[in-house]
C-alpha cells in the first residue's frame, strides 16, 4: 500500500497468532499493522477452507449477471447485489441507499415524505460499477458481441490503499489544515470484466460449465502468479569516501535517515518494454489537486516540510481514483517550475486527456524519487516515459548504496511492487538472504489478484451461471427420544418436590430422634 510506514513485518510462514504489547515500550505502526494482517489472514483462510476458492450464501449470493444488448445503444451487464467470497475475501455488490434529504417545504405532508424516500437501484451496470471505471469511448472496454462468439464474465478482486488525498473524509479537520493526515485505509476493489473464450483456449462454440470452469482456473492461475522476481542489497558506493561522514564509515547504506524504499512496476510487459519507478517514502508523498490549467497544476498544499514537498526536477504521477483502480500506467511528468505563493507547479507536459478533470474522482500528484536511470559503463540510462527501464541480470543502483536486481525471464505487471527497509543503525537494507548472505530473489509484495468466473454469455437469453453457492450450516436441535424425555420429567418432579418439602419427607419426630442420636455420639 502507498502509505507512510516504517516497514511491513507480517510473514505468514512465521505462524504468529497475535502481537503482544509490552508495558513501557515504544509503539510502532508495524506492530499494529501486523496484528491486523494476522487477523485478516486467519479469517480469510478459514473462509476459503470452508467455502472453497469462491462462493456466495445461497439466499444472498451476489453478482448474478444479466446481459442487456440489442435494444440499447451500447451493450451492458446488470450486476445484481449480494455477497460473494473469493479466496476468503468478502466482496459486497450491494448498492447503498442514497439517503433522504430534508424537503424544501418544511410543512410538507408526512405521507408525501414517505413516498419520496429514494430506494437504491437493485443492481449495478457494467458501466457504473463502483471500481470498474469502464469508458465507452475505449474500444477495449466494450463488451464482446455474443452473436459472434460467447464470452465469459468474471470477477477481479484486489486491494489498494486509500489516503486522505483520495477520500477527504478520512482527514480529521479538528487537527487543522497544517497537520498531516492520520491513518490510511485498505479497500477491497471489485471489477466485473469480460474475457473471450479464445483467451481461455476454448475452441468449442457451446462448452459445458465444467469445461469453462477448468479453463478459467488455468488462466486465473497464470494471471495471479507473477513471474517477476527482485533482490535488494546495500553496497558501499564508490563516492562514499568523498561524502561528509554523516554515517558510519563502513556503512553500506549511506542515507542519513531510515527509509522504506518502494520499487514499483510502472509500464507492464516483458523486460524490453517494462519500466519501474521508486520512492524512498513508500510512494506516500501525494498532493491533492485543486485545479488543472494546461501544464499548470494548483495543489491543496505543497507539503509539510522540505522532506515531503516538491522540487524542480521531481518526477510525479498525475492520476485520480479511476486510473488508480484501472491499474494503467500514465507517463510520469517532470516538475519544471514552482509557484510557492500560489501553490502551483508547472509540469513538463499536459496530463493525459480524461485524467484528473473530474473533481469527484479526487485527482492528485504522487511524487517519485528517481531522477535518472542507473549509471552503467560510465553512461546514464535514459528514462522511458519518465520511468526507469527494467534491466535484468545485473545490479541497478538506486541511491545511497541501495541496489536492486531483476531476475531474468520475468513478466511485469503495473502496480507490482517490492518494499525495502533501509536502516542507519546497521548501515544496511533489510532483505532475506541465505547463510552465505547472498540476497534471495523475491516475488512482489503485491498486488495480489483474486479471480472468479461469474457467467457465460451466449446471447440475449439467460446466461450460464458459473457461481457457486453454499447453504446454512446451522439446523434445528433434534428432538430427544422417549426414554430421555421421561428421565427429564422425573428429574423435574423430584426437584419440585424437594423445593416444596425441605425436610425430604421425614417427620418432625424422626428428625428430632436423628438429631439426638447425633448428639449422643
Q: Which features would summarize this protein structure in a list?
A:
single chain; 29 strands; six-stranded antiparallel β-barrel; 521 residues
At a glance:
The protein is built from 6 helices and 29 strands. The chain has helices spanning 29-51, 110-115, 209-224, 321-326, 482-500, 508-520; strands spanning 54-57, 65-68, 76-80, 83-86, 89-92, 123-125, 151-162, 185-196, 230-234, 259-265, 269-270, 275-279, 286-293, 296-299, 315-319, 333-339, 344-347, 364-368, 375-376, 379-380, 388-389, 395-399, 402-406, 411-412, 417-423, 428-429, 450-457, 464-465, 469-470. The protein starts with 28 loop residues before the first helix and ends with a helix.
Overall description:
The longest helix is centred in the first third of the chain and has 23 residues, at 29-51. The strands form 8 sheets. A 6-stranded antiparallel beta barrel has the order 13-14-17-16-15-18. It is 16% helix and 27% strand. The protein is built from 6 helices and 29 strands. The protein has helices at residues 29-51, 110-115, 209-224, 321-326, 482-500, 508-520; strands at residues 54-57, 65-68, 76-80, 83-86, 89-92, 123-125, 151-162, 185-196, 230-234, 259-265, 269-270, 275-279, 286-293, 296-299, 315-319, 333-339, 344-347, 364-368, 375-376, 379-380, 388-389, 395-399, 402-406, 411-412, 417-423, 428-429, 450-457, 464-465, 469-470. Strand 2 (65-68) and strand 3 (76-80) form a beta hairpin. It is of the alpha+beta class and 521 residues long. The mean pLDDT is 88.
